[in-house]
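It is worth pausing here to work through a concrete case rather than discussing structure prediction in the abstract. The textbook approach is simple: state the sequence, then state the predicted structure, then interpret. We follow exactly that order.
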Amino acid sequence: MKAMILAAGFGTRLWPLTEDRTKPAIPFLNRPLIAYAIEYLAEANIRDLIINLHHQPDSIRNALGDGSQFGAHIHYSFEEEILGTSGAIDKVRDLLMDDDFIVINGKIVTNIDVSAAIREHQERQALATLVLKENLAREHFSIVEIDERQYISRFAGFPKPLANEIASAEGQSLNIAVAPDEPPPLMFVGIQVLSPRIFDYVPRHCFSHSVVDVYPKAMAAGEAIIAHLTRGDWYELSTIERYVESSLHFMRQKGLANMVGANCRVMDGATVEDAILWDNVTIERGATVRHAVLADNVRIPAGARIERAVVVRRDIVKEIERGEIVGENLLIQL
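Step two, the predicted structure:
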């Protein structure tokens, strides 16, 4: 069985960490984020991989090579223009026509049993099987509704927040948030098993998105677009906040106060706590860094204080969208 890992996005919600690399190439626990998806698939004996590329493609190619370091073989599909989730598979449909295949996001870390999803897909002879999980925290992920057969019936909006009340524009409290005892909605975790027949519904040679341009047509035709429900662990790292929270979660599991990349220097008298240091970072004497991400080659000068922030070198940023320039760095507050 083959798998396609989606890795072409710009990673705008992770900016400026994605200024010089694509989102799945950012370091997570000192390894490229996409490496976790590759190992996850390899553990299920899925080693014939396709990875689509667009933004900063060499950041993936240089990190992964031909895939042999993972016991896998990688075919790269470069998109001159971003093609969307189903446009990506259309571009390589000739490589995916001989058997069922997996499509997985390159921005997740998970232990979900993908083999169980494959078995359910094949036993039920589905056109597509989407892995769903309860969104217990009601985070900003689209709601997926299913019927009594466990067929997907609708892709809905976003869940209301879990809170007793939220503030109106006039400053008054409005009790419109969801009740704590209301069942949590289901969300798609970015793992799907597809039959080659899916290409009957995928537009040719253009941008297209699965939940807009493909699945509604297939559902209307009576095709089995089914849900595989899971309770497995799942971390999605498409925002800076989730990246930091997930990093700190795994660091604490490992008993680490900080995550330190290659060739970093923390000088005597510096205070560093709950920090994620990429490669070649220098923190000078007397500086304080807490709850922060310091990207490659960042230098924090003596006596500086960085708290709840992301710091990249100013010289890698082409256009400054937000944040503050401090010396040779661009600083974004969390």
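Step three, interpretation. Residues 240-253 form the longest helix (14 residues). Helices lie at 33-43, 58-64, 84-91, 114-123, 210-220, 240-253.
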